[in-house]
Specification:
Length: 179
């Protein structure tokens, strides 16, 4: 259902924008012999079912671009990593559903209530969680981290919640008459 123009626009913003940011930062950082480039990908780029097809493909491309460029720039002392957020309560979800920017901001508290049950860590992901990850990647504390897609998702992509696995196991046992 996605028109070609929508594909091009999405790829332009989500992938081309990252490419251009890396391209221009790399020139400066290679000359100085150090630096840390951090891009934003998504868990949708690592696993299916977390975003629309084109969004997910663009974010997967950001992850791969990160790995690829890290191999080149690492030889010049420049680290290249990306952050893969999970369900983070931001206006992006409301905007993707067609809400105005103002209305998208207003529904963040509602999203927090929904997101707190998406992953094993029982709270919504917050912008501060992503900011802390970016600060760590930018710091000397992560000086040996290069070409990494840092997942910040409270365990979302780990699989089914353990409680759901246990419930399904009990349902299966009941079906077999073993309870």
């Amino acid at each position: 259902e996605i028109p070609v123009e929508g594909f091009d626009e999405t790829m332009g913003v989500l992938l081309r924008g990252v490419f251009l940011g890396i391209k221009h930062a790399a020139r400066v950082m290679k000359k100085q012999g150090s630096g840390s480039i951090i891009s934003t990908a998504s868990v949708a780029g690592l696993r299916t079912g977390f975003g629309p097809h084109i969004y997910s493909a663009a974010k997967a491309a950001v992850v791969h671009l990160t790995h690829s460029v890290a191999m080149e720039l690492g030889e010049s002392g420049v680290r290249v990593n990306c952050i893969c957020p999970g369900a983070i309560a931001t206006p992006i979800f409301g905007k993707s559903m067609g809400l105005s920017p103002e209305r998208a901001d207003e529904v963040i508290p509602l999203m927090k209530g929904v997101f707190e049950n998406f992953q094993p860590i029982k709270r919504p992901g917050l912008p501060e969680d992503i900011a802390r990850a970016a600060l760590w990647l930018a710091s000397d504390e992560s000086g040996f981290v290069n070409g990494h897609a840092l997942v910040v998702d409270g365990g979302l992509i780990g699989g089914r919640l353990w409680s759901e696995v246990q419930q399904r196991r009990e349902m299966f046992r009941a079906t077999l008459g073993l309870t």
